[in-house]
Specification:
The structure holds two protein chains of two kinds. By secondary structure, chain A is an all-alpha fold. In chain A, helix 2 (54-61) packs across helix 12 (268-293). Chain A has one domain (62-293): MetI-like (MetI-like fold). Chain A contains twelve helices and two strands. By secondary structure, chain B is α+β, with helices and mostly antiparallel strands. Chain B folds into two domains: 3-232, Rossmann fold; 239-346, Nucleic acid-binding proteins (OB fold (Dihydrolipoamide Acetyltransferase, E2P), Beta Barrel), CATH 2.40.50.140. Chain B is 24% helix and 32% strand. Chain B has eight helices and 19 strands. Chain B has helices spanning 41-49, 91-101, 106-120, 135-147, 165-182, 193-199, 217-222, 227-232; strands at residues 3-12, 15-25, 30-34, 56-61, 64-65, 76-79, 153-157, 185-190, 202-207, 210-215, 239-246, 249-252, 259-261, 271-276, 287-298, 303-308, 318-322, 333-338, 344-346. In chain B, strands 6-7-8-3-9-10 form a six-stranded mixed sheet, sandwiched between helices. Chain B has a five-stranded antiparallel sheet with strand order 13-12-11-14-19. In chain B, strand 15 (287-298) and strand 16 (303-308) form a beta hairpin. Chain B: It comes from Stagnihabitans tardus.
């Protein structure tokens, strides 16, 4: 029933949310819808006309797009599992009350994700230069006989990007696992000790299943993050303002969108189409991950 | 299987929490550790379980010293206050999980789990997860998980504290029945003296990491060694009155002008505490007190009257528990009589004067 009072309360409520809604509509919903409309447009710069599925056809014929897609999926397939496993291992280790200096280690592992992007990129560029500290150290330890061309070899450039984003985001994921671990009733592990459950089984049969929801959450987040990978490939493996080096070995979908929009002759429609490709990939992969993690 | 503690100690750094406990638990005995919170009863249980290291003394289970033996190999099973069920496993998986690591084959596991489930009435719940069970059902699963391992000693750590009052009484009876069936040694920790009284063959009253008294429930009730045990065991609590020996009688300090006959020889002028259980006022006797009723609690079968001496307004009122007390009213004068032999006397140090 709508009395005068509830209507007034309703109006007040809408009035309070209105500024946020206007901003959301203007800067989120409108651009999203506009980009969907744009993805059906062809043409250069502001000169565009309706092209139907022309952009989608162009995708299938565009070797650079396919290359960027391959790179992005490679980063995803290799980096996300490594990072998730590493974050889990760190979290379990740091949750052990017998470990000394837990607080310091926890902070140290978490810090990279709040470090300034520019600072970290500059540091990585210098560390991984041909004569940088990383190569120097590896040479000194006789692990390698000549410097690794981190920036100039397509394979090593990918490795470098994977190292960089793993370094930056592992601690972020670890914090989720730590929070989840700290919510587990310690009696459960005491019960497991009395039950004679070996350490391996404690990890795989108790810890991992109990963290399943958090693992799913972080996997979906990391998948989305990696599909949108842009920062590192536009800074660390970039020179003279062009990212994705060498020879587009680290070109990602996001970087390609950026290039299409701001570096090449602007092709807004086609760039919008690629951004929708990312949206669809995110949707599909998240859906698949939710299905995989579903309780039987 | 017998359990023996020989001057068992536990210290965290300089803080000693278990200060030398000696105890002999005979095979098949139901032993209850009881005491106020912080008395060390749970710590003592966890030391027996192997979850806390033992700082000093010996722990012997079934004739074997167990101080350094891993928790998994002590032949014990434990039921936790929080139940500690594995939340991602069904009831069946929870109950069979430990057996997998004990080397049993799936057929044997299923047989043992089904047998325990039948004993505890869990058969219909086997495929549910803990979150779909009520508190009492979870408790039963935790007990079932302990039973399937066929332990030599069961350890219970405040297993009924998370249940509501009605369920607590129900589970208490189930645990008693289970002990009659299995005849396994049980060590049970509780802060609830009613649980201790109703379940135990032997009660161990602990305070500040020390044993205050060990004995059968009624022994502790009738013949406590000190004021602490006398006050802790029994509900409603024992009444304590300060008194002085004067002219061969007990002059009550709290009830000026009133005296009680002295049933044992004590030096003139000694200060004592007289302990009177609320239920001794039921029968006639040669001792009497003149009181005024302040509050009456009618429980149906029994009546609790809280009464004071006329002039006295300070201090605790005396609790009087009587069966024929439906006509008692607040403000009424009450003359209670009792057998003076049932009054317990405690010295200034709190120890019983015998």
């Amino acid at each position: 029933m709508h009395t005068g009072l509830t209507r007034r309360e309703n109006l007040t409520g809408w009035a309070f949310t209105a500024p946020a809604l206007v901003l959301l509509g203007l800067f989120m919903i409108y651009p999203i819808l506009w980009s969907l409309y744009m993805s059906f447009m062809t043409g250069k710069g502001m000169n565009f006309k309706f092209g139907g599925f022309a952009n989608i056809y162009r995708l299938t014929q565009d070797p650079i797009f396919l290359h960027a897609l391959g790179n992005t999926l490679t980063f995803l397939a290799i980096q996300v599992p490594i990072m998730i496993i590493l974050a889990l291992v760190f979290a379990v280790a740091l949750n052990n009350p017998r470990l000394r200096g837990r607080a310091v280690l926890r902070t140290a592992i978490f810090l990279p994700c709040v470090t300034s992007l520019v600072v970290y990129s500059v540091l990585f560029k210098s560390m991984f230069a041909d004569d940088g500290v990383v190569n120097d150290a590896l040479l000194f330890l006789h692990i390698i006989s000549e410097p690794i061309p981190w920036m100039n070899d397509p394979f090593w450039a990918k490795v470098l990007i994977i190292l960089a984003i793993t370094w930056r985001w592992t601690g972020y994921n670890m914090v989720f696992y730590l929070a989840a671990l700290q919510n587990i009733d310690p009696s459960i592990y005491e019960q497991a000790r009395i039950d004679g459950v070996p350490a391996r089984a404690r990890f795989f049969k108790i810890t991992i299943p109990m963290l399943r929801h958090v693992i799913l959450f972080t996997t979906v987040l990391s998948t989305i993050g990696t599909l949108q990978l842009f920062d590192e490939v536009n800074t660390i493996t970039a020179s003279q303002g062009q990212g994705g080096r060498p020879a587009d070995a680290t070109l990602t979908l996001s970087l390609y969108i950026y290039n299409l929009t701001f570096r090449f002759m602007p092709s807004f429609g086609y760039a919008a189409t690629i951004s929708w490709v990312i949206v669809i990939l995110v949707g599909l992969l998240s859906w698949a991950q939710f299905r995989l993690a579903r309780e039987k | 299987m017998s359990v023996t503690l020989k001057s068992l100690r536990k210290a965290y750094g300089a803080a000693e929490v278990i200060k030398g406990v000696d105890l002999e638990i005979t095979p098949g005995e139901f032993c209850v550790f009881v005491g106020p919170s912080g008395c060390g009863k749970s710590t003592l249980l966890r030391m027996i379980a192997g979850l806390e290291e033992i700082t000093g003394g010996d722990l012997v289970i079934g004739g074997k010293r167990m101080n350094e033996v891993d928790a998994a190999h002590r032949g014990i099973a434990m039921v936790f206050q929080s139940y500690a069920l594995y939340p991602h496993m069904t009831v069946r998986e929870n109950m069979g999980f430990a057996l997998k690591f004990a080397g049993d084959n799936p057929g044997t596991i299923a047989k043992k789990v089904d047998a325990a489930a039948a004993t505890l009435g869990l058969t219909k719940l086997m495929d549910r997860k803990p979150k779909d069970l009520s508190g009492g059902q979870r408790q039963r699963v935790a007990i079932g998980r302990a039973i399937v391992r066929n332990p030599k000693v069961f350890l219970f750590d405040e297993p009924l504290s998370n249940l509501d009052a009605e369920l607590r009484v129900h589970m208490r009876i189930e645990i008693a029945r289970l002990h009659q069936e299995l005849k396994t040694t049980i060590i049970y920790v509780t802060h609830d003296q009613v649980e201790a009284m109703t379940l135990a063959d032997k009660i161990v009253v602990l305070r500040d990491g020390r044993v205050e008294q060990v004995g059968a429930p009624l022994t502790l009730y009738d013949d406590p060694d000190n004021i602490f045990v006398a006050g802790f065991i029994g509900s409603p609590k024992m009444n304590f009155l300060k008194a002085r020996v004067q002219n061969g009688q007990l002059a009550l300090v709290d009830l000026p002008g009133q005296t009680l006959p002295l049933t044992q020889s004590l030096p003139e002028g000694s200060e004592v505490t007289v302990g009177l259980r609320p239920d001794i006022f039921k029968r006639g006797g040669t001792a009497h007190l003149d009181l005024t009723i302040e509050i009456v609690e009618q429980l149906g079968a029994e009546t609790y009257a809280y009464a004071r001496a006329g002039a006295d307004i300070d201090g605790q009122p005396l609790t009087i528990a009587v069966t024929e007390g439906r006509d008692l009213r607040p403000g009424q004068a009450l003359k209670v009589t009792f057998d003076p032999a049932r009054a317990l006397l405690f010295g200034k140090d709190g120890q019983r004067l015998r």
